[in-house]
Amino acid sequence: RLEARLAALKQAMQFAASLKCRVVTVRLGRVPSDESPERGLLLGVLNDLARYGNHIGAAVAATPSRESPEVLATLLGEVTDGPLGVNFDPAAFIAADSDPSEAFRTLYESVVHLQVRDAVRETDGSILEVPVGRGEVEWDALLALLDESGYRGWLTVDRTTGNDKPHDAARAIEFLRRLG
Q: What is the pLDDT of residues 31-69, one digit of tens each?
């Protein structure tokens, strides 16, 4: 079903470009190891999407799973046929047992969108998404890094769990405004 999924993604990229939206975020999934045959397939797909995005004016921004920022940076460096950005999700780096601020320092040149989510690691190793400001993300440090790097892209609040998502999102916006 890969061909159908790629066709749908390219259609979404074309639609985004028609709206003058220059970034389309996609979930990357697990990054295969260097020696895995799946890595070559993933790189082929990412290079194809990068070429297509370059042609139509809408770049793909990959949302990481639980990869370290170094693994993601290496993968991005292997995409040679056009731009491929990062949809920076601090909660994903908490899940990867990485410090989001350090992850941003590693990836800042590729960050084209920031997903505002927060999380905590549970004692059993699982990850729990929590309202922004109540997790392990040090938002004051991360916002300072965004400013220092010259980032001028979107910050999109994305509350994916919880019983009061709309109010959690509104509180996240207010929280960020107080810090900013």
A: 998 889 899 999 999 999 999 999 999 999 999 888 899
* Amino acid of residue 41: L
What is the DSSP annotation of 137-157? --HHHHHHHHHHHT--S-EEE
Task: Kindly report the pTM of this predicted structure.
Answer: 0.91
Beta bridge partners of 63: 27
Return the H-helix or E-strand segment holding 26: strand 23-27
Structure tokens that stand for 141 in this block: 């440090």
C-alpha angle with apex 40: 43 to 51, nearest 5 degrees?
A: 25
What does the buried/exposed string (b/e) look like for 28-50 if buried means 16 or more CB atoms within 10 Å of the residue's CB?
Answer: beebeeeeeeeeeebbebbbbbb
What is the C-alpha separation between 54 and 49, in angstroms, rounded? 8
Phi-psi region of 20 (alpha: psi -120 to 50; beta: other; left: phi over 0): left
Distance separating alpha carbons of residues 65 and 61, to the nearest angstrom: 13
Q: Which residue intervals of the chain are DSSP H helices?
A: 2-18, 37-56, 69-78, 90-95, 100-107, 139-149, 165-179
- How far apart are alpha carbons 113 and 131 in whole angstroms? 20
Q: Whose CA is closest to 105, among 76, 141, 137? A: 141
Nearby residues of 163 by Cβ (< 8 Å), 6 or more positions away: none
